[in-house]
Amino acid sequence: MKHKFMYDKILYQISAELKDGTNVVNSDEGQVEFISDAVTESAFILNLNGKKVKAYGVRDGDKTFLNIFGRHIIIDDVSREDGQDFSGDRGDSASSAVAPMPGSVLKVLVNVGDEVKFDQPLVIIEAMKMENQVRAPRDAIVKKVAVEEGMQVGSGDDLILFEI
Amino acid sequence: MKTKIHKILIANRGEIAVRIIRACREMGIISVAVYSEVDKTAMHVREADEAYHIGEAQASESYLRHDVIIDTAKKSCCDAIHPGYGFMAENAEFATTCRKEGFIFIGPSSDSITLLGDKIASRKMMSAAGVPVIPGVDDADLSDKQLFEAAERIGYPVMIKAAGGGGGKGMRAVQSADKFMDSIQAARREAQSAFGNPTVFLEKFLVKPRHIEFQIFSDQHCNHVHLFERECSIQRRHQKIIEECPSPAMNEDLRKNMGDTAVQVAKAANYENAGTVEFLLDENDKYFFLEVNTRIQVEHPITEEITGTDLVIEQIRVASGERLSWKQDDITTRGHAVECRIYAEDATVGFLPSTGKIHRFYNPTGLGIRIDSGIETGDEVSMYYDPILAKIVAYGKDRDSAIQRMRQALTDTVVLGVTTNIDFMKDVLDRKEFIDGKLHINFIEEYMPDWKPAELSNDQLNVVLGLATIAKDTSKQTYSESDTRGQPEPWQVVGAWEIGYGQ
Predict the structure, then answer these.
(1) B238 and B173 in a common domain
(2) Quick check: B471 and A66 CB within 8 A?
């Protein structure tokens, strides 16, 4: 079965199948095979070329939370959003500045029509009593201010929209 | 006057509330938890003997509501209130109200809290008492313009600090004059929102100092002791994440001098109960008084580990009028302890808090390992409160063995569902500067400014991606599977129920 995953902002397309009890994973990075024994729903023992590897993993919607190779890893399943341009909301072509976390809007520093420079602070969000600046992802002109001071915002919400 | 305490209301949440509940249980004292809307099933609510709803999720509508908390204490027939740390722990008005309403407030007198909570007044008083303070400007009512002029006199870099409290809130280092005005406004806003007081003051910014603090303890009979130092130089956003004791920077003379100064501070402030005297120590072993935290400290467990004490039980004893359990000479240390604070935050994006459901939490365990936790599998981490999840404390016969145990403990700690700083802290422990004990408060900014986890090999990456196709979606389960604790805990199978209401 084919999957599209995002890990550390990079898109990976893989195919994974179970052949005679062995998981076979193919991607641009090559092929690996491993045997997985589920200890519980979220704990696994993998056999990787004869080497035992302990792993933990649970899935919540599109996100998979893993602990393996001595570290925590979060994988985003983007298979559903087939064909979408993932860089659409970042960098040079960003159409908006979004909230990096849930919090309340403490201050809006720009107005509609303002020309903003890359990295210029646009909005100050307060979360857990700390102030966090949301900065411009590129040089742009402010098309719309989607929030006002005192408003609660969620992670990923549009704060400031830019002229394209 | 001795008053036996029978029932304590804990005006807090999270790991510290759980810690206090455990101390109550050991002493045969009934514990009463309070909770906001989103904490209905939180760990401190589960652990306490009784629990009462006190309001909405926002702390200002629940954990900061003096009136509701006092009413709850009356209704539940408590005789004492423990504030923990944060929230109302250093609120003199709350301490006064508690006492006026006939409750024992487990902490210092309101006068001490007021004096030491005012960072400007305490700085002045300590300076007058001969305690060394950082050069700076500490007039309370200076305008932004006057402060700007003062900064020019002191010379950049300068540090802006809130008069109303610590913990990194309202604190800004300013490198040059052009950044000064923006910084001071941000600091005032943060100070206003955190402490309800926009007053700030200036200090000379020390280059690469260590944060060394002394645990102090005083009873109502004018006995004052210290329980040696903790080094808390590993900080991000001016907040500690890794602490240890003894400090690798200490020698016996310095320890004696700083310990004497800490006791001198306790005497000067007519202190009572547990407190912490914070110092900065510069590269020439010169130390400066920073502030006194008038509460139990997050990192108190490491002191307990090396001194063989229980500071929370001592707090309760002393608050009930008993004499300190120890004289200065009775207090000795053995071995070394390190604490790592597990925060729900993302070290790759400026330590931004992360929220979500803890789908799995596996504790480390083993010789010399202690966990003070406020969460278990199934709990939610909300945006409303400090994102500390748990503290891991490792004890060893010396610094190397304590660090080695901590490294293993962090490796054994698994938190699935939110991003945490666990992997980041492991990399801190592995840095040569840390191993060599060359710590200072800008350690993380200097050595690990753009931290990223080490890259996975191609094979590892494929295994990870393959595993992502196998992992099951268990998020919709109403109670967690049995693998974390043997069998489902009662609250997980019971579901929503009313706790401790009425009576």
Answers:
(1) no
(2) yes
